[in-house]
């Protein structure tokens, strides 16, 4: 497989950096081709502005979606954005690695998605039937994605009754609202809890879990999110009453195990 590893941590000597290095080495040993975007090392610009869109930006009021779509179609996106899109086009799988900060992504990584997943590339794509291709369909459909993250909280505190909220819900905006929205198949994440106080034996366990997941990158079953256009939703994109009857919340958008 061709694997793109996007890494967002400011310290390469961190626990995250050590896991990244071992993960890249594991992928290469398994025969995969690997490219990396180390956002801090690249000094990635996370800020969307008119300069992203070249001649299409002009002097008019900036409407990001429409302007980015035209710039993408006309080949006028800034070179740094194009370079990342070319990596994504090349990749069969995307690994996104980051420390969980304030319930979300580091700003530099959020800005990578903001600038790279422009309209016409990450969203705003229509199928032959005229319907918007998203939530399981889209330009990035057929690719796999996996999150690797470190969190300061211990595992019980990010469980179903933990004060920090369940990890699958904390990651919902990224896994469902970004990766799956753009069409990618999302594998269960690889978390490392209590990351600021990991003893050697726990690091060895985390490294082994990551290695095992990378060995099965092609075969691990993705999270069974319901596709938008697969028949589970009505014309208002509301889940039909026969699915998860009476239930609400994020979990209703994941198919139950069979």
TrEMBL record:
Keyword Iron applies: no
Coiled-coil spans in chain: none
One term of GO molecular function: NAD(P)H dehydrogenase (quinone) activity
InterPro entries recorded: Flavodoxin_fold, Flavoprotein-like_sf, NAD(P)H_dehydrogenase_qn
Species of origin: Amycolatopsis pretoriensis
Protein name: NAD(P)H dehydrogenase (Quinone)
Keyword Ligase appears in the UniProt entry: no
Assigned keywords, A-Z: Oxidoreductase
Pfam families: Flavodoxin_2
SUPFAM superfamilies referenced in this protein's UniProt entry, alphabetically: Flavoproteins
GO cellular component: cytosol
Record domain Flavodoxin-like fold: where: 1-214
Protein family per UniProt: Belongs to the NAD(P)H dehydrogenase (quinone) family.
Top-rank taxon: Bacteria
């Amino acid at each position: 497989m061709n694997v793109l590893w996007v890494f967002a941590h400011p310290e390469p000597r961190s626990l995250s950096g050590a896991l990244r290095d071992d993960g890249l080495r594991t992928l290469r040993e398994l025969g995969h081709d690997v490219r990396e975007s180390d956002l801090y090392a690249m000094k990635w610009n996370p800020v969307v502005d008119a300069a992203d869109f070249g001649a299409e930006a002009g002097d008019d009021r900036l409407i990001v979606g429409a302007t980015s779509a035209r710039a993408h179609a006309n080949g006028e996106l800034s070179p740094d954005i194009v370079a990342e899109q070319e990596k994504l086009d090349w990749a069969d799988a995307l690994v996104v690695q980051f420390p969980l900060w304030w319930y979300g992504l580091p700003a530099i990584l959020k800005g990578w998605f903001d600038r790279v997943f422009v309209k016409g590339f990450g969203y705003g794509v229509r199928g032959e039937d005229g319907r918007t291709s998203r939530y399981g369909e889209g330009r990035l459909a057929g690719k796999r994605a996996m999150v690797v993250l470190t969190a300061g909280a211990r595992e019980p505190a990010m469980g179903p009754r933990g004060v920090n909220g369940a990890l699958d819900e904390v990651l919902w905006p990224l896994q469902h609202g970004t990766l799956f929205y753009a069409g990618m198949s999302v594998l269960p994440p690889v978390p490392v809890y209590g990351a600021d106080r990991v003893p050697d034996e726990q690091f060895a366990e985390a490294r082994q879990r990551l290695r095992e997941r990378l060995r099965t990158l092609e075969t691990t079953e993705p999270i069974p999110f319901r596709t938008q256009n697969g028949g589970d939703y009505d014309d208002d994109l509301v889940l039909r009453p026969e699915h998860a009857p009476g239930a609400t919340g994020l979990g209703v958008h994941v198919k139950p195990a069979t």
